[in-house]
Amino acid sequence: MRPRHDDVRVERGADLPLLGRLNRRGFRLLMAADVLVIAVAIVTPMAVGVAVDRLRLSWPASYYVLGYLLALVLHFVSFYFGGLYEREQRLGSRPVLPRIVSMSIGAMLLVALTQQFTGVRTEIRVIPLSILLFVPVLVSIGLAGNRRIARSLRDRRDGPPRVLVVGVPDDVNLAREHIDEVHGTARIVGTTTNIADLLELQQQTTATDVLVVTARMIDDAYPEPLSTLETRGVNVLRRISAQDTLLGLSGVREVAGLPFVVLGGSALPSSRARFKRTLELLELVVTLPIWVGGITLLGLYVLVTAGRPVFYWQRRVGRYGQLFDMVKFRTMRPDAEVAGEPVLAANDDARVVPALRWLRQTRLDELPNLWNVVRGEMSIVGPRPERPELTEQFEVVIPGYDRRHEIPPGLTGLAQVHGRYRTDPEYKLGYDLQYLVNWSPVLDLQIQLRTIWVMVTRRI
Fold first, then answer.
1. Nearest in space to 90 (alpha carbons), one of 250, 228, 269, 233
2. In the CATH hierarchy, which fold is given to the domain comprising 160-263?
3. Quick count: other Cβ atoms within 10 Å of Cβ 431?
4. Rounded distance between C-alpha atoms, residue 133 and residue 105, angstroms
5. Can you tell me the distance from the alpha carbon of 179 to that of 109, in angstroms, rounded to the nearest whole number?
6. pLDDT tens digits, 192-246
7. d(C-alpha 238, C-alpha 217), whole Å
8. Side-chain half-sphere exposure of 277, counting CA atoms within 13 A
9. With the C-alpha atoms ordered 454, 455, 456, 457, is the resulting torsion angle positive or negative?
10. Which of 21, 378, 386, 421 is 20 to 30 Å apart from 92, CA to CA?
């Protein structure tokens, strides 16, 4: 199994100074600079309005302070969960201003909606809507300026990106010509025509980026050495070929005029993973009476029809390959696996208690997995967790199978609503990886709604 990402970060950052260790844990000086910009952007329009006597403050000063703090928090939360503080890729990075503008407008709408539903009258709002209209402009200019300064300081400290070019000689020479024409874009520190030499060459040259300019060579790089390069913090980009356009690729990056797509990075950035976790905890709180009541009633049904034990605990593989005990309702006889060896269930498995067969067919036997969700061992939506014995087998025969462990496993997932119980693991992996790279709150909602349909129709 792959090493835990956070273990790799801690090991690599153990000897760093305090600021470096904080950076490894997600803190950025850019955050403090952005908070200052946001605070000034919120206060300045109000101060100008008061100065020209267009606004009259009708509330106590403490009330306005709380209003400003709320606006500041909503802006920062929007930027954080929007991924604005993820590690920026230097080579082929996208313009950041459009993202900041859209996030600023979204944050301003959050502030406006919060004021709308707090019952404050329109004429005496803490931050009038006319003032809020200026905030996204000031915030966008300030945050874009912060990033320009940060990028300039980093380039002065580290110099241009150090690049390894991988490909056949003609492709390598073409890439070199383009990069040399755009002064300061990058510095080529080595080239190779053999993927097998990539890890050793990267260590020798301390390259920060790898450009794979011959598209077909990427087949020999997955899952290794891509996984190792990822743990080293090395960005890998592959040049897009004409055939790749048939795949409908999005997220194309430009490097010295050549089109590339980023490879090998973690599928779900940490900020979005935390956002996903926050949304799921809110969902659990809102639906608490429903799922607690459902587990209670179904538990009583299992107790009456099948006796004890009501719950069945089974060791499963979770995030980063860590093992945990998953709980579900028992639907099979207590002696279903006497020898302790994993036995795959059949469609009409004789070990299933007849009175509990419907519970298994509707997947309601997995409802107690919500306890694992509360503990942080699982998510509501994600790749289904497998038993460690089966995972070890799949990782041997299915390249890249361990990438599904980059997020906590789920109560339901894309593979469960589109595939079936007996769908081959390699095909299920395709669904799992598609979910990882395309995650959004809307996709989670769609999967949950479709899961209800699968349960009702008993399509397993």
1. 233
2. Rossmann fold (3.40.50)
3. 19
4. 9
5. 42
6. 988 888 899 999 999 999 998 887 887 777 778 888 888 888 888 888 876 666 6
7. 9
8. 17
9. positive
10. 21
How much is the pTM? Answer: 0.74
Question: H/E element holding 235?
Answer: strand 235-239
Residue of 392, 370, 452, 441 lying closest to 416 (CA atoms): 452
Lookup: tokens for 295: 């587990």
Amino acid letter for position 388: P
From the list 288, 305, 400, 321, the residue with the least C-alpha distance to 358 is 305
Residue 209, both tokens: 């980026």
Determine the Cα–Cα distance for residues 370 and 444; give it in Å rounded to an integer. 16
DSSP string of 382-448?
Answer: SPPP--HHHHHHHHHHSTTGGGGGGS--EEE-HHHHHS-TTS-HHHHHHHHHHHHHT--HHHHHHHH
- Spans of all domains in the chain: 5-157, 160-263, 270-457
Angstrom CA distances, 281 to 138, 248, 284, 379, stand at 33, 34, 5, 9
Directed axis angle between helix 270-286 and helix 441-457, to 10°?
50
Nearest to 263 by CA among 425, 155, 400: 400
DSSP string, 406-423: GS--EEE-HHHHHS-TTS
329 and 299 Cβ atoms separated by less than 8 Å: yes
Tell me the C-alpha to C-alpha distance, in Å, between residue 422 and each of 108, 291, 309.
Answer: 48, 28, 27
Q: How many CA atoms lie within 13 A of 59 on its CB side?
A: 15
User: Distance (Å, rounded) from C-alpha 387 to C-alpha 68?
Assistant: 50
DSSP 36-87: HHHHHHHHHHHHHHHHTTS----S-HHHHHHHHHHHHHHHHHHHHHTTTTSP
DSSP 117-182: TTT--GGG-SS-HHHHTTHHHHHHHHHHHHHHHHHHHHHHHH-SPEEEEES-HHHHHHHHHHHHHS
- Per-residue pLDDT tens for 307-361? 889 998 999 999 988 999 999 999 888 776 665 566 666 566 778 888 888 888 8
